[in-house]
Write a structure and sequence with these properties.
The complex is a heterotetramer, with 2 copies of chain A (345 residues) and 2 copies of chain B (324 residues). Chain A is an alpha/beta fold. Chain A is built from 12 helices and 14 strands. Chain A has a 7-stranded mixed sheet, with helices on both faces. In chain A, helix 4 runs parallel beside helix 5. Chain B has 324 residues and is α/β, with parallel strands linked by helices. Chain B has a single domain, classed as Rossmann fold (3-Layer(aba) Sandwich). Chain B has a 5-stranded parallel sheet with strand order 1-2-3-7-6, sandwiched between helices. A two-stranded antiparallel ribbon of chain B has the order 4-5. The mean pLDDT of chain B is 98. Classes of the chains: A alpha/beta (345), B alpha/beta (324). Chains in contact: A-B, A-C, A-D, B-C, B-D, C-D. Chains B and D meet through helix 6 of B and helix 6 of D. The complex binds thiamine diphosphate (TPP) (2 copies) and magnesium ion (2 copies). The site of one magnesium ion has 6 residues of chain B, from strand 4.
Chain lengths: 345, 324, 345, 324
């Protein structure tokens, strides 16, 4: 399928630049390796979801696992997102560590009752007696006319109510490290991956390392403005920063990594230095992640801000199918550049 | 006393505890100190008692908004439960759950959902975990007739049948969901138990006010589950005596017809077993009196305890949103 | 039930002050009358939901309707929120105007797939050929230990993705006027009422008037700061404004009325005048309505703001049952006063 | 020609249109101009044709991601549908829907959901509206075997049975949901049609590759519906020849066993009826050739039209989020 081979310009995050010559793996391989090693190490970990054992292997991330671990640990399921989420949660509170995989975040809308009314509230309602070590993976679709029900990036719906953790890896390094952290976390964690990043290579250590949930990453340092980005928008931000550099504008680019909880300190520190903030998120605008960051930073950095905070998000309409409209729909590095230029004197 | 008589006596004790517990709630509720919406199960005690009599503390149950009976039958301490109703720190959920969300992992209550149909898949998942862990444990999903209309019911039965999971689905069909009668919600030509056939699972419809029948049928289901023969759906017909929520008679408020309630009051499950025990000479009326008195004393003590216990404070508000 | 008789201090909005001596009805009566008259006038309107024909009549708002209009137009339903939402939507796209009632917003979490992936996207996906004239009513619960699954105010989850309209009446006048507007609207509209406002009286004209969706209301004029509030928080804001007045602080209080679309112009105009903004919402903080208003106004009123925008929302935990915790949980007029004092020199 | 023969001929024309349409998509897809994920229905044409032959334009259908056949059988113009695949303004959904979301109210297609199970309740609601409006219309929900696992399936059947709604549930059981076999998702001891019993509704399992059987059984269901006798569930066994999505053979990519596909190719529904028509002399091979040629000419014209049509532009992006 043509739409399975999108391409995106990639970059190497500052933090891992030294190791950039070391072990390289794609985002896809990083996930596959993380899953394999988690399963090998901890008998309470298992994988479930529609087609997780098939020949596509969730875009290649679960390929071959069923041969190694068998059908009892790589469990193909019926199509019943709400009930199966409850079943996964039931297993989690009885001592297992399920990884429930959805091909698209869009399908999570069916399971929000079990996710938000149950999994997210269970620890609190039970006074901490019953933790829910449940990991949900889903992969943001985009392009090739996937349209309104197969292209959504719904992190904001998962972050509004208290209780879930949500992470969005932008690099191969994070794809594995956040997966490991999520599976070891005693709380329900949703990992939103991005399909367009799957072929991106990057430094990926062989061991089962964790990227801490709740911490952002400084991808590039700069003093003129801060760009906080999520998922694929991190790459657009890095590209924008490269172009801006040519005009002697040094943007500081932060990869949020963890959407909830999020690293306020990191963003505050950066904005106190630069005085300017752009937030570029893959989701929608109204009450989105960008709104939260904007509202919070506007309060915390009141004295430092030299210009209004700008949000770059999907426009206020569902995702259209036509290629001509998709092209207009998704913001990219050019929008970031334009917005940055508007903020600077 | 032979074993059957012993069991009958234990079932009676459990049912009586549940009945008197609920009556105690009714007695104290008007004080307006128990600030929690109570969904009383008077009239339905036999199901909780008959099913839970087969369970170990490591077996799990998942209940609903109408959970008091299930929790007591599963062994939840009356002090912890009442303290929860009074919103106290020593309540089984630290006062955060109220009457709708009791939790006590030490006796197999891994939290309670008051979302109709919400607990059913949790029971399937917990039972599945047990079998993955190679343990010989079962899980019970208690739910009402209304819950059998939710998609989670269908999804749970399909999965449990598919994977041969040791879970028992216990539907307490009391003919109403709030004040909405069964006939407004499901076709009358079929029962809830009938739906089990669609999943290749045994479905049994029983008199939910006959605790010995409940005990027997639940026992068969447990045996099947523990022997790896998979899930069972039990539909137990019963009736709730009090309003959907709160300690009132809702036939007086026009929510349900009074004659219907009157007929069901005559089928009181507690009375029925008591009569049997007396007739068979398993207990005499003195012993019965004494039992009631003992339970009442315990309940009074628990009420006092709950009233005097400390309420959660500001330091408690934000903790445990995330587990450590 | 004790919890059915909460009490809240009420006020008369500026816009209807002149008529305050005229026809008085409670919020509950206003809804009941609106429903009755909509049913009487338009045969395509009907009501559905769990227990809509019972002796409680959805907190008194549907009482007696079944006697007048029969069981075919006042339809008690099974408990199956997602499926029934789809069924209601199916009826709507085939020419009916269903009013689907939920006792609590919490239960909408089960139906978000039909609401957000279907109803909200249908007009767009069908290129405007298939509108969805569906009204959803739900009533925010609060207090008496209703706890984490029966007290939520989830407007932010409904506003994030494009396609739904969401309104939150704070007065009897709006309860009827927004209901009429919602039912006549050709789009899916969610009305979030508040149980604590049900006994509040106010001016309610007899006819079937509409309160326009998308317009805010100036409840009180003032020049020192703006308080934008939703639902019950409008009353807390008015009370705070009264107290602040004693200290010679004149707050301008705006009732958002319509959460989506929302009246940016009205808020911008006010903030341009006052230079200070507090948003008081009944919902959660992360990506909530307050975040959206804060982010948007911070951008639009950059030159006018004299102090950081403050959000007053529910804290970052599920709703606890204990009365002692509920007391701490819900913000009220005191928090607004304290926040206002912090903003002023 | 007698009436049965006429009907058989019409069914053949419809099936052939669907088959050739899908083959045309396969032919042009590699050009990468049709930027939309296509879920082809080759092998399943008989169900769409046999069911929709009973429908008027005012009757409605609700389909799925795999909707091409249903839409064509219901009368959606091939130009409009292909223009939609090419993302054009004159596409049936203005280019916004792509292949997954066709809509055309003029022929009873009130939009299409690609959420599995999402369209089933819509069909119930539309049929309910028709009966509230006193119209003698029916609605059809087409869906796959996978969709019968979603809660909406259960909720829709319960409501339709309860309210006696003129809806026909047509489950195309092709044994797979993406590459997940039926046995991984539902207990093999029961069929999907069996589930109808749990709602007191007729459930029929038929050979979905025999268009005449589909036509007959669907006709009976329509009659029941139009006569106020309520809903029917039809499970039609069939098989898809191409991959879940895209114009490829997924037995070559290891997603499904090749012998299984080979066996089903021998049961080709189009071939089967064609043979019958030829045997009975209803058509001869010249006529058949001519028919294929005519359809092909129309399809080529529609492809050219779709390619040349204007794409939506910036002005189109934000409109119709809300209806006026
Ligand atoms: C999903 C959901 N919808 C609606 C409600 C409101 N509600 C609480 S209990 C109840 C009736 C439940 O009926 P049933 O399952 O028969 O249990 P019963 O109360 O009779 O024990 C309803 C509708 C809810 N809690 N959750
Ligand atoms: C709710 C939901 N979950 C998952 C998907 C992804 N998905 C698309 S089609 C499909 C398989 C559907 O199988 P079936 O219903 O049998 O239809 P078929 O493709 O065989 O025609 C899946 C899982 C989806 N679109 N919607
Ligand atoms: Mg009931
Ligand atoms: Mg299928």
């Amino acid at each position: 399928m043509p739409w399975t081979t999108p391409s995106i310009k990639t970059f190497t995050p500052v933090a891992t630049a030294n190791e950039a010559t070391h072990r390289q793996r794609t985002y896809r391989e990083a996930i596959a390796e993380g899953l394999h090693d988690l399963l090998a190490k901890d008998p309470s970990v298992f994988i479930m979801g529609e087609g997780v054992d098939d020949a596509s292997g969730v875009f290649g991330t679960t390929l071959g696992l069923v041969d190694t671990f068998g059908k009892d640990r790589i469990v193909d399921t019926p199509i019943a997102e709400n009930g199966i989420t409850g079943i996964a949660m039931g297993a989690a509170i009885k001592g297992m560590r399920p990884i429930f995989i959805h091909m698209r975040p869009d399908f999570l809308l069916i399971s929000l009752d079990q996710l938000l009314n149950h999994a997210a509230k269970w620890s609190y309602m039970s006074n901490g007696q019953v933790p829910v070590p449940l990991t949900i993976r889903c992969i943001i679709g985009r392009g090739w006319g996937s349209a309104a029900q197969h292209s959504q990036s719904i992190q904001a719906l998962l972050t509004h109510l208290p209780g879930l953790k949500v992470v969005m890896p932008a690099t191969a390094y994070d794809a594995k490290g956040l997966l490991v952290a999520a599976v070891r976390d005693n709380n329900p964690v949703v990992i939103m991956e991005h399909r367009w990043l799957y072929d991106n290579p990057g430094y990926v250590p062989a061991e089962l390392y964790e990227v801490p949930i709740g911490k952002a990453l400084v991808c590039k340092k700069g003093q003129h403005l801060t760009i906080v980005a999520t998922s694929m928008m991190v790459h657009e931000a890095m590209r924008a920063a490269e172009e801006l550099k040519k005009a002697n504008i040094e943007a500081e680019v932060l990869d949020m990594r963890s959407i909830k909880p999020w690293d306020k300190e990191c963003v505050v520190t950066s904005v106190k230095k630069t005085g300017r903030l752009i937030i570029a998120d893959t989701g929608h605008r109204y009450g989105g992640v960008a709104a939260e960051v904007a509202a919070e930073i506007a309060e915390r950095c009141w004295d430092s801000l030299k210009a209004p905070i700008r949000r770059i998000t999907m426009p206020e309409c569902p995702v259209p199918a036509a290629a001509s409209l998709e092209e207009l729909y998704y913001p990219n590095y050019k929008d970031i550049i334009r917005t940055a230029q508007g903020l600077l004197p | 006393m032979n074993i059957d008589d012993q069991i009958a006596l234990q079932l009676f004790q459990k049912m009586l505890l549940i009945r008197l517990f609920e009556e105690k709630v009714i007695a104290y509720y008007p004080e307006q100190e128990m600030k929690t919406p109570v969904h009383l199960c008077i009239g339905q005690e036999a199901i909780a008692a008959g099913v839970c009599a087969h369970l170990q503390p490591t077996d799990t149950i998942f209940s609903t908004h109408r959970n008091h009976g299930h929790c007591l039958a599963k062994g939840l301490d009356i002090k912890k439960l009442l303290a929860e109703f009074y919103g106290k720190k020593t309540g089984c959920s630290g006062g955060r759950g109220g009457s709708m969300h009791p939790a006590d992992p030490t006796c197999g209550i891994l939290g309670t959902s008051a979302i109709v149909g919400g607990g059913i898949p949790l029971a399937v998942g917990a039972a599945w975990a047990s079998s993955m862990q190679g343990k010989n444990e079962v899980s019970v999903a208690f739910f009402g007739d209304g819950a059998s209309e939710e998609g989670t019911f269908h999804e749970s039965l399909n999965f449990a049948a598919l994977k041969n999971i040791p879970v028992i689905f216990v539907c307490e069909n009391n003919s109403y969901a709030t004040a909405s009668p069964f006939a407004s919600r499901q076709p009358l030509t079929v029962s809830i138990a009938d739906k089990a056939n669609g999943y290749g699972m045994p479905g049994v419809r029983i008199d939910g006010n006959d605790v010995l029948e409940v005990y027997r049928v639940a026992g068969e289901a447990m045996t099947r589950a523990r022997q790896g023969q998979g899930p069972t759906l039990i539909e137990a017909e019963t009736f709730r005596w009090m309003a959907h929520v709160g300690p009132v008679d809702d036939t007086k408020t026009g929510h349900r017809p009074a004659p219907e309630l009157a007929a069901w009051r005559n089928k009181c499950p507690v009375q029925r077993l008591q009569q049997l025990l007396l007739n068979k000479g398993i207990i005499n009326s003195n012993q019965e009196e004494k039992l009631r008195h003992e339970i009442d004393t315990d309940l009074e003590a628990a009420i006092s305890y709950a009233k005097q216990a400390a309420a959660p404070t500001k330091e408690d508000l934000l903790n445990h949103v995330y587990a450590d």
